[in-house]
């Protein structure tokens, strides 16, 4: 890692009005998996599949945030957050995904929103962070076009209840990761391993985003609407072969970034036929009018950034994908998850988005960025990580990218999907045996940074 100052008082100043936040997601923190009439989600099902999650961990209790949200909001107030990004559990509100609404589910988010507003923190809910109601998965999940319509109906129900107080909304979290991990490789719920046959999941999520955007605007005329995309700069290794490796990088970029950003800002998908990944209509999945729905204007793009992706041409072109994922050759520092720490990748990503979409790119919020580090309170490596990445955001701003906010992942240690509780991303350490919360050194650092940026 390069050495830049982590001293909060000597830190580059982000523009006035910049939003400082932290993020979480429902299944990762709430627990109360079957309380108050909540229905099962695909994650409630998947965690019970032998071998699906390390050591058989589940989100049944997680951080018990459903019962301890007041304590967690008090921590956010101590941090001085402007905004808190959380997600709403669809099956807590609509236990079977559609039809009968569970008022106790909505009551929970109502109390959370009020507690946040009392603390001067802007609630920023995400409507879908991967916990699809199992009943909808039983009807095809995101492979089915009907799920996009159910998503818009659910968005309307939530907006009707919270829209008088909630003005910033995020429709989807990381539709690329949900498609690839959940439906292509089967390492996340719902655990399907369809490889490229998972592509309809991308389109149906985006269609759901577009339909939900319309539903939110109808219910909350002054809503500000974003989507949170996981984006990655695609890199070649120093020994790359010009033609094959460059083509592989461009195929991977289309699949990871292009499919999820182009339709929002250009009204079209990248041409996957060029890479042999799909025909033009993806087998009839993309219908007339869909791209107009998906490209309805947004108030912002949420960017979740963790690291670049290195690719090479496929060793076995018959294996089905037009690229292989590769390890970087540079000796980057690594997080506890073994992810390379590459802050300048975030500047590259942000300036690349501006180059690619120009005036069509709305303001950007970093809706996730953070790292897993070993357990313990003295998390110097997390402070370095945050300082380097926030500096990288400041660099992008100085290069003309309109970045309006930064939400770190995560407020609390939580259930890290297939890794269970083995990866710790929190500014606050959680002892999962006692549910005791203890702020780490990075909590104090982030608090001081926010305060000094305001002064
Ligand atoms: O924990 C996840 C989160 O749910 C989505 N983005 C990446 C985080 C770290 O893996």
Task: Explain the overall architecture.
It contains 14 helices and 13 strands. It has an eight-stranded parallel barrel with strand order 1-2-3-4-5-7-10-11, surrounded by five helices. It has helices spanning 26-29, 42-46, 65-79, 90-93, 103-118, 134-137, 146-162, 175-184, 199-219, 242-265, 290-294, 344-357, 380-398, 441-454; strands at 19-23, 83-87, 122-128, 168-173, 224-230, 234-235, 300-304, 309-312, 324-326, 364-368, 403-409, 428-431, 436-439. The protein is of the alpha/beta class and 455 residues long. 52% of the residues are buried. It has a single domain, classed as Glycosidases (TIM Barrel, Alpha-Beta Barrel). The two termini are 28 Å apart. The structure holds 5-hydroxymethyl-3,4-dihydroxypiperidine. 5-hydroxymethyl-3,4-dihydroxypiperidine (IFM) is lined by residues 25, 28, 174, 304, 368, 409, 416.
Topology, please?
Elements: E1 19-23, H1 26-29, H2 42-46, H3 65-79, E2 83-87, H4 90-93, H5 103-118, E3 122-128, H6 134-137, H7 146-162, E4 168-173, H8 175-184, H9 199-219, E5 224-230, E6 234-235, H10 242-265, H11 290-294, E7 300-304, E8 309-312, E9 324-326, H12 344-357, E10 364-368, H13 380-398, E11 403-409, E12 428-431, E13 436-439, H14 441-454
Parallel strand pairs: 1-2, 1-11, 2-3, 3-4, 4-5, 5-7, 6-8, 7-10, 10-11
Antiparallel strand pairs: 8-9, 12-13
Helix pairs in contact: 3-5, 7-9, 8-9, 12-13, 13-14
5-hydroxymethyl-3,4-dihydroxypiperidine (IFM) is lined by residues 25, 28, 174, 304, 368, 409, 416.
